[in-house]
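Go through this:
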Amino acid sequence: MKIKVISFSQNHISFICLRLNIISLLIIDSLCSMNTKYLEETYYYDYNSTQIQNLIKGARHLTSNQEKIENLYLKVRDSWRYSPFEIGLTEKHYKASTIAEKQQAHCIDKAILLIAGLRAVNIPARLRLAKVSNHIATERLEAKLGTNELAPHGLVDVFLNGQWKKCSPAFNKELCVMYNVDVLNFDGTEDSVLQEYNKDSDKFMTYLEDYGHFEDVPLDYIKSIFKDNYPELYKTYLGAKNISF
């Protein structure tokens, strides 16, 4: 069988390269347009507030988005202690500026803080919710919830270099040291969501279900997930501003 060799002139090659560059730019522009909604300020992601403007002070001067992502991730991860023992049931609870005033926060709260900070420096970010099981130091949770499964668990999707990557800013460094698990780091280039085992190779956490991503904080859906997973506890706190234990 003869193979036909097709030759191209330099002008033809230049034309093809130009077309490919144009197509690439159109794809990037389309992605950027689609992600504009993940830059918007909302009631919950109130990034023009004094609290969130203070949060982003250390990131403003950085030149690359990757550096800004890493800076804000570490700031949120370690400046607020993780606590799963208070779950908000009101709109105000989930407002980024309200969360910023606290010393400790739930995983969803910390995710909201990070999203507000990222949007404030023009980096698309959105909330992701999941169901997880925690295998270490769960006695207090299990006593209240009746299970070691936590739902919903809050994560953050971040858009960098044409790709969405997931991260979890929940577990502060001190907590990781206490429970002998690796500290998660994140700069937007790779997913960083799970410490499956601790350093002794004991099971630490398992992701059970992904509830998807959201443009804004879906408070009614958060409540419905909690109600579906812990119906009796939800009834107990019906009408309350938060569930605290």
Notes: The chain has ten helices and eight strands. Residues 38-244 form a domain with the C8orf32 fold fold (CATH 3.10.620). The first helix runs from residue 10 to 34.
